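Inputs:
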Amino acid sequence: MAEILVLAEHSGETVKKVTCELLTLARRFGEPAVVWTGPGAEAGRDRLAEFGAAKVYVAAGEEFDDYVVAPKAELLAALVAAGSPAAVLVASTPEGREVAARLAVKTGSGLITDAVGIGDGLVAEQSIFGGAIVVKSRVTAGTPIIAVRPNATTPEPSPGAAEIVAAGTDVSDAAKGARVTERVVQEGGERPELTEASIVVSGGRGVGNAENFALIEKLADALGAAVGASRAATDAGWYPHQFQVGQTGKMVSPQLYLAVGISGAIQHRAGMQTSKTIMVINKDAEAPIFELADFGVVGDLFSVVPQLIDEIQQRSGS
Amino acid sequence: MNIVVCVKQVPDTGSERTLKAADSTLDRESSDALINELDEYAIEEGLRLAEAHGGEVTILSMGPPKASESIRKALSMGADKAVHLVDDGLAGSDALATSEAIAAVLGRIGFDLVILGSESTDARMGVLAALLAERLGVPQLSFASKVETDGQTIKIHRQADYGYDKVEASLPAVLSVVEKINEPRYPSFKGIMAAKKKPVETLSLADAGVDPARVGLAASASEVVSFAKRPPRQAGTIVKDEGDGGGKAAEFLAAQKFI
Ligand SMILES: Cc1cc2nc3c(=O)[nH]c(=O)nc-3n(C[C@H](O)[C@H](O)[C@H](O)COP(=O)(O)OP(=O)(O)OC[C@H]3O[C@@H](n4cnc5c(N)ncnc54)[C@H](O)[C@@H]3O)c2cc1C
Ligand SMILES: Nc1ncnc2c1ncn2[C@@H]1O[C@H](COP(=O)(O)O)[C@@H](O)[C@H]1O
């Protein structure tokens, strides 16, 4: 059975959920082989085995993380040349797409980004124009390279051997063009990552100011959710830019999306329309966001949200 | 410094966008076209760098004849000149083909720094900076929220989920910028008048030395199998808050097993 290469996303030794999702998809089309760059593979191995990785190609050198994107693409290209895999799957994150793009040039392959599913014959499904149109497409040249949107697949365990295989150790000079001199971690905190979270609570202009975002955070924490924001809120400086959801922000597809004080402009919808369940709290019954709502409350968020938080805390007994 | 800013004309995201039934390419006739919003930040950054370090800003756009409107707008913001790659043979190019053509033009006109928007609002791939860096063999400085250069080396903050990375490279390089980086200027009346006289060079595939077999729909390395409008969502339950809105919301969440 041909291999399917899966580029692991991990922070240190912690395997990100999207990698388990990619493994779940990969199992349907061949033998999943994870590609791991940087340290931590030994510790991450159990998790990869749980989701069916047959092999884990490890390029453990710190150097792989010291330069922007190019070393990973180079490593994958070498593995593609050596093993002729049936496909390469990466997470459709900004960096994942860039790795995929460079790999496509190196291997003369076609590239599909932001897939929300993969069907028979490696036909990828994409949801475009803010979810208005569903497109099915397939790669017609080289090795199919598919970037899959995080949170679009339910990860299902299925044991694999996760045999560790040492792969490429050197990074070529050509791949050392852009050097990372420092990583600055800003957002710390306990909340799940926006694109990986199963629940996202977003606040918009209706929240009124930066201080009031504490209310959105409190609701998010009660639900174990990530916090998002509309562009109106990030542009106003009420919440950091990297939490913006929408056309020019993050694309999210959680199980539950809660839009609070957000009108539902088409550019916002573009980033959240594929969420499984959508709840809306807005005082204007005419706000277009209600068109997407599975459940909506027409009311002032400053009375609805505190009551909701109380109810959640009572029900969860905390 | 010789700065080239890549600008794409895209359909207005506020209008309804559709694909053409015949070849599954974007129906550009049916919606209004404007400058990809993120490219305005790239233009602004280019202008600021040229103001600080001297040099020229050239706008480079690949697209149908109509894209000249967006090129004029970019010139009216203050760019010095433009190159417009326009050829029927380019229609339907995917990201890989687009990068092939744009890289060829960049190779021809030369550059110290190429600046792009972080992504186009239509294709939303956000890959062109990486593709150009790969093809041109120069450093990739993408998703920059801050840029500093002394004309030899360039340092950026590369936006990441966890914050940002500080990244350093030497010029020439490819840079893409996120919207947080600056506030794009509006064209002044004077700028609009001056733009009318600025040089715009149009290049065909032959002029640019691009092999027609490597671009356009036929050269695409992927194909659309089918497309369909997403079925509309089922209408949900909307309640009016009568002092019990939060409670009702919690009931819904409990019924759906979220709490
Ligand atoms: C090219 C382009 C890209 C864009 N990209 C994005 C993007 O990525 N993401 C994004 O979000 N936007 C984006 N936008 C902006 C978008 O068009 C809207 O301007 C923006 O989404 C509006 O944010 P909002 O819903 O928070 O604000 P508004 O539209 O002002 O809505 C605020 C809502 O809050 C409600 N409200 C006010 N007070 C209360 C209260 N006390 N209780 C309850 N409800 C209340 C109001 O009824 C209103 O519906 C983009 C625009 C362009 C042109
Ligand atoms: N046809 C084009 N002509 C000029 N620049 C382009 C073109 N397509 C994309 N770009 C540039 O590449 C960036 C990223 O586009 P994309 O990778 O398509 O999301 C855009 O913001 C533009 O700066």
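DSSP finds seven helices and 13 strands in chain B. Flag for discussion at group meeting.
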